[in-house]
Design a protein that fits this description.
By secondary structure, this protein is an alpha/beta fold. It folds into 2 domains: 52 residues, Spermidine synthase, tetramerisation domain (Spermidine Synthase, Chain: A, domain 2, Roll), CATH 2.30.140.10; 223 residues, Rossmann fold, CATH 3.40.50. It contains 10 helices and 13 strands. Helix 6 crosses helix 7. The chain is globular and about 55 Å long. The N and C termini lie far apart (45 Å).
Length: 289
Amino acid sequence: MSKPQWCAESVIHPVRVSYKASRVLAELKTAYQQVVILENETFGRVLMLDGAVQTTTQDEFVYHEMLAHVPLLTHGSARDVLIIGGGDCGLAAQVLKHRALQSLTQVELDPDVVELSRRYFSQINAAVFSDNRFQLHYADGAAFVRDTEQFFDVVLVDSTDPVGAARSLFTPDFYTAARKRLRPGGVLVCQAGVPFVQSQVFGSTMRSLAQAFALVDNYLVASPSYFGGHLAFGWASEDLKAESVDVQTIAERYAGSGVLTRYYTPEMHKAAFVLPPYVAALRNPEGTA
C-alpha cells in the first residue's frame, strides 16, 4: 500500500500545516501561480495557491458569508458590487443571494483558477455562472480599479496574501483608486490576514487603508482552514461607520434579503467588531503582538 500524500502549507516561516490528500484532483502551474486541488477527510475539497489554502468546501461559508453580508447589510441598499480576486467564485455566490442587487462585477487575474474552481467546486459556485447580473473580467485588479469609469456601492477584495501579483492590492495607491470608484455611502472590505501569525501583514494593511479612507475599522472571523487564530477583515469608507447601524436594523435587512446563512447572523455581525486588545494594538505603527 502506498503512503498517503501530504500537502503542506506554510503560512509563516516557522510553522507548517499539512493536509492529508485522499486524492489530488488537479495540479497545475498557471501563468501566475501553482494550483493544487485535493480532497481531505476533514475539509473536503481544498484549493491551494502557491502552497496557501484559499478555500475548502467544508468551511468556505464562514469566510464568504462574513465578507459578503457584513458590508452589504450595513450598507442596506447596494445596487452594484465589485469583487477583486475571488477566483473560486464562492464570494460571488454569497453576494448574488441578495435579491436587490443589480450587478456584480468580478475581476480575477488567473482564468485557470476560475475554470478549475468551476469544475471542482461547483457545489459552492454553480449558481454564479447562470446569473445574468454577474460579469467576470480577467484582468489585473489594481489596473481595473485605476482605469474603470464604473461606480460601485461596495468593493470586496478577496485576494491572496500580499506576495507576487497580489502585492499591488495592499497598497495605499490601490485603496485610493478604489475609494474614487465608490458612491457616497460606499464601503470597501478586504481580507487583512491572521493578526496573530501575520502581524506585519495585518498592521501594514490597516495603515495603508487609513492613508486612503477617513473611516477604518476591523472585524474578525473564525475560519478553521485559515491557520493561526481569527482572520481579520479591513473595513474602509469615507462616510459609513462600520458600527453605525444597530442590530435591530441589521436583523430587519437580513430578514428581508432572502439570504440563508450557516455562520452569519445579525448578532454575529455586531460581535465580530469586538477586537481583543492585541489585535487593536497591531493597527498602530508601534503595536506588537
